[in-house]
Amino acid sequence: HQKILGGFRRTSDKLGENLTGLFTKAALDKATLDEIEEALIASDLGPATASRVRERLADERYDKGLDEAEVREIVAQEVAKILAPVAKPLEIEAFPRPQVILVIGVNGSGKTTTIAKLAHYLQEQDYSVMLVAGDTFRAAAIGQLKVWADRIGVPIISGKEGGDAASLVFEGVKQGTATGIDVLIVDTAGRLQNKAGLMDELSKIRRVLGRLNPAAPHDVVLVLDATTGQNALNQIEVFRDTAGVTGLVMTKLDGTARGGVLVAAAEKYGLPVHAIGVGEGLDDLRPFDAVEVARAIAG
Ligand code: GDP
Predict the structure, then answer these.
(1) Pairing between strand 247-251 and 273-277?
(2) Cα dihedral 197/203/208/211 (nearest 10)
(3) pLDDT given for residue 80 in this prediction
(4) pLDDT for residue 191
(5) Tell me, what's the pLDDT at 213?
(6) In this structure, which residue's CA is closest to atom 19 in ligand 1?
(7) Across the 299 residues of the chain, what is the mean pLDDT of every consecutive 10-residue run?
(8) 275 CA to middle of ligand 1, Å?
(9) What's the rounded Cα separation, in Å, for the pair 122 and 124?
(10) What separation in angstroms does the CA of 285 have from each of 169, 229, 256?
(11) Which of 146, 251, 258, 262 to mutate to test the pocket of ligand 1 (most atoms within 8 A of CB)?
(12) What is the per-residue pLDDT for 255?
């Protein structure tokens, strides 16, 4: 819990900063309400949330004046309302095995680290995990995933740089089935700059998977870097349209004042948020708890 509070400290500090100056005002007039709404939007909280906070302040506080604790409480409640419906842990179904999770995201988003954290988390829940190094465009990505696989002790299917990702996935499902693996986590190339290439590659992976198991992939998890703020929202849009995203993991919430973007994303896209990344270590993937995160953001 401390880690999550710490993770959002910058976001809540930023919110406080944006609101500072307003709290010295005695009256909660229209101009002040406008300023509060703008301050919330400037903190990346999303226009619908900002407008609901404004309405509630107008309804509940107009006669009483402005009180910092009261504003934060209302922000926390409204943020929790937006986040609660999207807080959904990744569910591993019993059949068929292996469950296949495709992990997508632009380079640098924290994709590789998230795969390692997720594999570690699943291992702790007694699932057997296998990785597929499907980001064959970057030799570094293959190498890094192998290092993680070694460290946490899970098998990995990998090939050469420039190799065919779909055949690695095929091999992964084959070996995973033969050895009774519960979950196959597939890294993929995050080439947003080449949308056609990205689509081709992902649809080829899907075709191969579909032939082996019509339900696969069971999840398509998009990894987003919170420090990129509004840019993360654009990425959701592009990947949703090209890859059929089923859920999100937002990383680097410990290193940014832009954690509010999680709220904007929930508001705009309503995609499940499976977990959040609050550090570089294996244990720094946290379940996404709407109330806890809302309190941490509101400060
Ligand atoms: P990829 O290129 O998307 O595979 O990204 P990586 O997994 O290699 O991560 C890029 C950098 O971000 C690495 O230095 C990671 O240690 C770091 N990183 C990943 N997730 C987090 C996180 O939740 N918090 C912090 N502070 N750093 C992270």
Answers:
(1) parallel
(2) -160
(3) 96
(4) 78
(5) 87
(6) 110
(7) 73 86 77 91 90 93 80 94 96 91 95 97 97 93 96 97 95 96 95 80 91 91 94 93 93 88 94 96 94 91
(8) 15
(9) 5
(10) 25, 19, 16
(11) 251
(12) 81
**Spatial separation of the C-alpha atoms in residues 149 and 195, rounded to whole Å:** 29
The alpha carbon of 162 and the centre of ligand 1 are apart by a number of angstroms equal to: 23
Q: Which residues line ligand 1 (CB under 6 A)?
A: 105, 107-113, 141, 251-252, 254-255, 277-280, 284
HEC profile of the chain: CHHHHHHCHHHHHHHHHHHCCCCCCCCCCHHHHHHHHHHHHHCCCCHHHHHHHHHHHHHHHCCCCCCHHHHHHHHHHHHHHHHHHHECCCCCCCCCCCEEEEEECCCCCCHHHHHHHHHHHHHHCCCCEEEECCCCCCHHHHHHHHHHHHHHCCCEECCCCCCCHHHHHHHHHHHHHHHCCCEEEEECCCCCCCHHHHHHHHHHHHHHHHHHCCCCCCEEEEEEEHHHCHHHHHHHHHHHHHHCCCEEEEECHHHCCCCCHHHHHHHHHCCCEEEEECCCCCCCEEECCHHHHHHHHHC
pTM score, whole prediction: 0.94
